[in-house]
Each structure stands twice: as structure tokens, then as C-alpha cells.
Design brief:
The protein is α/β, with parallel strands linked by helices. It has helices spanning about 25-35, 75-85, 90-130, 140-145, 145-150, 175-185, 200-210, 235-240, 260-265, 290-295, 315, 335, 345-350, 365-370, 380-390, 395-410, 410-420, and strands at about 10-15, 40-45, 60-65, 135, 155-160, 195, 215-220, 245-250, 275-280, 300-305, 320-325, 355-360, 375. Helix 9 links the parallel strand 8 (about 245-250) and strand 9. The protein is globular, with a radius of gyration of 22 Å.
Length: about 425
């Protein structure tokens, strides 16, 4: 990739999402470029206050969130309001879902206007800064970089984190996402360099956006972080919940997208193992879905609802013995093709935590080759799989570390990408 000699040693990252503090790929890219003496500027939408504070390891990284003075609907307040009228979690969940649908649609409309403001405020600045590289993330980022792309694309790199499909979006229910995805199909053809997690997701991106593969250079970087500084076991979760059982940890979303209710039910009469949900964002313990799970699950299911930054997440993972990764296949290919895109899986493997994972495309081949955990086809197989791992724990733990080193080591994958940019 040839870069004009007048460019400064700087990188801009355009990330039009609110979950920057918990996004391994963006944080790792920023810190890796900063480690190469680049100045990195991240332009993003307003960061959701329900996520933990972000902490970068380098002073060469700056973050410029879009200032948003509007006060959105407080979903926690809605949940507390509903609890005054019904003690039935199922009814609260249904009514709460209606409120959240209205909330989501209003945010879709609002996002259209916010993105226009973002374009006016940041695009001229990004162009004038003469960045050596501009990394634009996903369809929302492409849409938010309208003037930048019109100015020129030779120094633009596209980063695909989420797969979205125009045919599954509806202009009348998700107008913002619909317009962004339509823009992606139009604009992605112009960009040569594309970062994506693996071949399966690359093929999806090509098919959905009608790309000619020979016109693009694909760089494979998994949704990962650098090697840990320590593998010392932690007592964080046992101390937090005063449990002595073997802990199986679920990181990230507590929702139907991760079959959280079904997962919890599989522990209902379990005495040997405890399941801990560690949410990625601050969540009210009175949330109807949380209450529903508590009502349906056994006493050995716990909720860690105060998230930590990525830099502190290791202490939580290292206090568990096994990780569990479950996605709802009904939500489409973005959730199915997670072999190299699941942050919770990769973050656990890098610390030597074996994984039990519900079968998805590409997963079984990896797990059977490296023996870093067990693939199950049904949640009824989870407890027997956990017992098998515990019976030969050192074997699975060592293989988890080998799998991370071979496939998911961010530094190794970034080095290949960086060497391409700077031959």
C-alpha cells in the first residue's frame, strides 16, 4: 500500500458505535499503532455511560466522542416504573419490550440527525489533518465518513466488525441502519484494504456487498487483544459471591441473543458447578429479563452486573475454571460466524480458560484440532462437557493457550498487517 510522503505518522479511527470501551479490536489496533510511535485519534459517537470507563495504555491515543446534550429515555427508570404495577417478570418483560422498541426506533431517527452533525463537525477536520491511515469501521462508520470518502480513498482501510444484511433491514423500523448498510454497498467497492476476522466472514461481506475479491486486499485480524502479562489465578468471583463450586463464566450480553435464559435453566438442579453471568454494561438488577432468569434458574446462578474495563477483565476471567459461549443461531450469520469474532471466547482462551461452545460454523474444526474445549450441539450437553474438562483440566488449559497463540494472538496478526502497510 503506497502512502504519499507528505502524510504524517498518524492514524484516524472512525467508529460510529457507543461501545468503544469494550471493543477489543479497536482498542488493540489503537494501542498497537501507538506502540509503533503513531499518534492515534478515535472519532466516535457519544459513549454509552452504561459501559465502563475506557483506559488506554498510551498517551499517543486521543478520543473525540460526538457531544450529545440530549437526554435519552432512561430504560432503567422504565423498568422500575413497571415493577410498581406488576410482580410478574413475564408481563414486565413484554411491556418493557414494547417500551424498548419505541426507544430503539426513536434512537434510529435521532441517529440520522446526529450522524449528519458528526459529518459536518469531524469530516473536514479529518481531511485537514492529513492522516497516514484512516480506519473506518462498519457500515455506520462508512456512512459517517461521507466527505472523507469523496475526498479520496487511497489511505482508507475498512474494518468489518459486524455483518449486516440490507435484505433483513427495514427502512420503516430501522431507518438508520438501513441507510448505513445501503451506503456501505455503494462505497465499499472503492476501498482496497479491508480488515476482517476470517475467511467465512470475508465471503459473507463479499456476497452481501457484491464485491469483486480481486479488487480488494483482505487482512485477517481476530477480535482479540495482546498476550496477558500474568496467568495467575484470581479469587475475584469466588470472593464476590462466596462460592466454592467450580465456576463456569459467561461474558458479555445477558439477552436472548445469547440464550441466557436457556443457559441458566441448564444449571437449575446443579450442585457441582456455578454459572456466573458477567455483563458487559451496567445493568439494573430489577431488569425484567434478569428477574425472569432468577425466577427460572437455580440457586447456583449468579449475576455480575458491574462491568470493568478491558484492562481489568483478566482478573474476572482468571477467577473462573471454564468459559461458556452461546449464541442464538436464529439471529443470523453475524452471530453464527463467530469462530474468530467472539471476544468472550478469545479473551478466555488467551488466559488458558477452556471453552464450552454451542456449535457454530467453523468452530468444531478449531476445537477438535486444538482440543481447547468442547463443542456441544445442545445445552443439555453442557454439564457432561464441563465434567469432562475438569477431569483432565491441565490438558485443556494448556491447549487453550496453544490455540490462542496459534490463531488469536493479536500482536502476531497485527504485525502481518503492519508489515504489509510498511514494506
Amino acid at each position: 500500500m503506497e502512502i504519499h510522503e507528505n502524510f504524517n505518522k498518524t492514524v484516524a479511527i472512525v467508529f460510529w458505535e457507543d461501545y468503544l470501551p469494550i471493543c477489543p479490536t479497536i482498542i488493540s489496533l489503537a494501542e498497537s499503532f501507538a506502540g509503533k510511535s503513531f499518534k492515534v485519534d478515535i472519532y466516535t459517537t457519544a459513549i454509552n455511560k452504561r459501559y465502563p470507563s475506557i483506559c488506554f495504555s498510551s498517551n499517543n491515543i486521543s478520543c473525540f466522542p460526538l457531544i450529545n446534550d440530549d437526554k435519552p429515555l432512561n430504560v432503567h427508570s422504565v423498568n422500575r416504573f413497571l415493577n410498581l404495577f406488576t410482580k410478574n417478570p413475564s408481563i414486565s418483560l413484554i411491556i418493557g419490550g414494547l417500551f424498548k422498541s419505541i426507544y430503539k426506533y426513536s434512537n434510529e431517527i435521532k441517529s440520522i440527525f446526529l450522524q449528519r452533525r458528526f459529518i459536518r463537525q469531524t469530516n473536514p477536520k479529518i481531511i485537514s489533518e492529513n492522516y497516514q491511515y484512516i480506519i473506518i469501521c462498519d457500515a455506520t462508520g462508512l456512512s459517517a465518513s461521507e466527505q472523507i470518502i469523496q475526498y479520496g480513498v487511497e489511505n482508507i482501510i475498512y474494518l468489518s466488525l459486524e455483518l449486516e444484511y440490507l435484505k433483513k433491514l427495514n427502512f420503516f423500523t430501522t431507518p438508520f441502519r438501513f441507510l448505513c448498510q445501503k451506503n456501505q454497498i455503494q462505497k465499499l467497492h472503492k476501498i482496497k484494504n479491508i480488515i476482517i476476522q476470517d475467511v467465512l466472514r470475508k465471503n459473507e461481506l463479499i456476497n452481501e456487498n457484491f464485491l469483486e475479491e480481486d479488487n480488494h486486499k483482505f487482512h485477517f485480524i481476530p477480535n482479540s487483544t495482546s498476550k496477558p502479562t500474568s496467568l495467575k489465578k484470581s479469587a475475584y468471583l469466588p470472593d464476590l459471591f462466596n462460592v466454592t463450586n467450580i465456576i463456569i463464566l459467561h461474558l458479555g450480553m445477558i439477552s436472548d441473543a445469547c440464550l441466557s435464559l436457556e443457559l441458566a435453566k441448564s444449571f437449575k438442579n446443579q450442585q457441582e458447578f456455578s454459572l456466573v453471568f458477567h455483563d458487559k454494561k451496567f445493568t439494573d438488577s430489577n431488569d425484567p429479563y434478569i428477574k425472569l432468569i432468577k425466577n427460572e434458574a437455580g440457586k447456583n446462578v449468579y449475576f455480575s452486573l458491574n462491568p470493568v474495563s478491558l484492562s481489568e477483565l483478566d482478573k474476572i476471567i482468571l477467577s473462573a475454571q471454564i468459559g461458556v459461549v452461546v449464541y442464538n443461531k436464529k439471529l443470523g450469520r453475524n452471530f453464527e460466524l463467530i469462530a474468530n469474532a467472539s471476544g468472550k471466547m478469545i479473551m478466555s482462551l488467551r488466559l488458558g480458560i477452556p471453552i464450552i461452545i454451542l456449535e457454530m460454523p467453523g468452530v468444531r474444526e478449531i476445537f477438535e484440532f486444538y482440543n481447547c474445549g468442547i463443542v456441544i450441539s445442545d445445552l443439555n450437553e453442557l454439564i457432561p462437557a464441563a465434567q469432562k474438562i475438569i477431569s483432565n483440566y491441565t490438558y485443556y488449559r494448556n491447549n487453550a493457550l496453544k490455540c490462542y497463540s496459534a490463531l488469536y494472538d493479536f500482536d502476531k496478526n497485527f504485525s502481518n498487517f503492519y508489515d504489509f502497510l510498511n514494506p
